[in-house]
Amino acid sequence: MNLDYDKLLTGLIENISGFRKKRPSASLNVHLLGLIAETAEVIRLLRSGVLEYVRHHIVLETPWHLNFAQLSDDLLLLELPTEGLTAVKNDDFWTELSRTDNLELTDVDALAQMASLIKGCTTLPYFQLCKTFNNSLSALSGLCMDIADEQSRHRTNEEYEQLYFDEVKRFNSSRPGRKARKSYEGWREDEAFGYPDIEELKEYRFEKLLKLLDTGILDSKTAHVRHLNKYVGEMDFDSIEDPTERKRYIKLYAVFRRFFDYKDGFFVPNAYHLGHFFYREKDAPNMSSLRNEFLKYLKKIELAQAEMQKIMNEQAEAANRQDDGTEDLNYFAPTKHLKLLLREEWFSLLVVDEKKYGVKWTDGAIDKLMSSQWGEQIAHDWAVKDKRLQLKCMVIGVLKDAGIIKGSYNQIAKLLDIEGENTATLAKYMGQGKKQGFSEWLEADTISE
Predict the structure, then answer these.
(1) Which residue of 38, 281, 372, 424 has the fewest CB atoms within a 10 Å radius of its CB?
(2) What residues have CB less than 8 Å from 255, skipping those under 6 apart?
């Protein structure tokens, strides 16, 4: 829909208004013929481009800013007077053209035929031209009213649901949508070191929920909130110290819950209610920017929830293995802590090539270790709390022996600076790494660069 319909219609109206001011002249009929052809073309474009669009789409923002209902009335005021003019009879051309009088001028083929016919004529009776022009103007007025009726008609539940999904899709593919995802990923890496746990994700979700409630998009609905205890326990509003602010957020949350279900600890959007709300409020002040802010924080909430669900699924799988009689080994915890270990400052100070052995390499190396034949034994030993430090040091020792980090065991141990641990003990644990089967983990054919 790249056509500028505002310009198309305002241009036609300006041309008609200008024609009405002209004084009688020999060229007047030729100008009127041009207006008839232009009106026919506008009808064709509006029917195919606008009427068909609003029949099949429910949209929040249209590529035009026209009030079609008002335009329908205004067009009828532009009809040309025909009183006192004499009809021309027995003219072959006008006998043919008069057939358009009873045609539905929204019929594109008929309009094209009429436009072609009048361009080829040489005898131009002004009375018949005025009559034909008024018919086409009436058809254009009727078409504008059809468009207005389509825009204001009652929508189905399915249409409102689709409106919500279309709006989410639009936002996600937009620059603000991409920035929202990047912001979440930045938090995940910088604040949670790439491995947020359930509690961290819940805290993040609550923080973004408060931001969403602060957008102002729901403010006008809080006046009808009566029951402040309806959703007690779902979110930790007690953590908000100011009682006035706490009450304000609780009221906004009650409005929020009209549009979201809360199932098994997750917010689930009600597409129908959200689509209906977006459509009903589409003409409110600043609604476009408010809606984008709302969708920005909703996107961050949904990303956090998706990661929560992933962790819960992994925990459920572990529980199922336990139910099956197999040992319940936690692979996630050692994987997370070993990766974080290699992101600490000491590693960047000792690594022989920081560009070659950066975070991407170290994360990949730990993933390969935990998915290798030694992963199960590491997970088994990690379950014993007293073995965890020893495991960390042995991994460091293997890296040192492979020439990926420089320095002696004692030098590395001093940089680790683990409170309450003797440097000599840490160095001893590192030396034990070469005795472990997983010392083969860093062979060239095991870890790719």
Answers:
(1) 424
(2) 218, 221, 222, 225
Model confidence at 198: pLDDT above 70: yes
Mean per-residue pLDDT of the chain: 84
Give the DSSP H/E element, type plus range, for residue 190. helix 175-190
Q: What b/e string do you get for 308-338 counting C-beta neighbours within 10 Å, with b at 16 or more?
A: beeeeeeeeebeeeeeeeeeebebbebbbbb
Alpha carbon 341 to chain centroid, angstroms: 36
Cα dihedral 270, 273, 279, 281 sign: negative
Helix (H, G, I), strand (E, B) or coil at 161: helix
Beta bridge partners of 221: none
Give the pLDDT score at 208.
98
Pair 352, 404: CB distance under 8 Å: yes
pLDDT score at 31: 86
DSSP string of 20-45?
A: HTPPP-TTHHHHHHHHHHHHHHHHHH
76 contacts 137 by C-beta, under 8 angstroms: yes
Is 1's pLDDT higher than 60?
no
The upper half-sphere exposure of residue 432, i.e. CA atoms within 13 Å in the direction of its Cβ, equals 13
Instruction: Pinpoint the alpha helices (H) of 342-387.
Output: 345-350, 359-371, 375-382
Statement: residue 90 has pLDDT above 70? no
| Amino acid (one-letter) located at 442 | L
- Full DSSP string of 380-432: HHHTSGGGHHHHHHHHHHHHHHTTSB-S-HHHHHHHH--TT--HHHHHHHHHG
Average pLDDT (413-427) is: 82
Q: At what angle do helices 28-46 and 126-152 cross, to 10 degrees?
A: 20
Q: Which residues contact 123 (CB under 8 A, 6 or more apart)?
A: 91, 93, 94
| SS3 assignment, position 168 | helix
Instruction: Find the length of the chain.
Output: 449
Global pTM? 0.63
Answer whether 446's CB lies under 8 Å from 368's CB: yes
Q: Given phi > 0 = left and psi -120 to 50 = alpha, else beta, which region is 419?
A: beta
Share of the chain above pLDDT 70, in %: 84
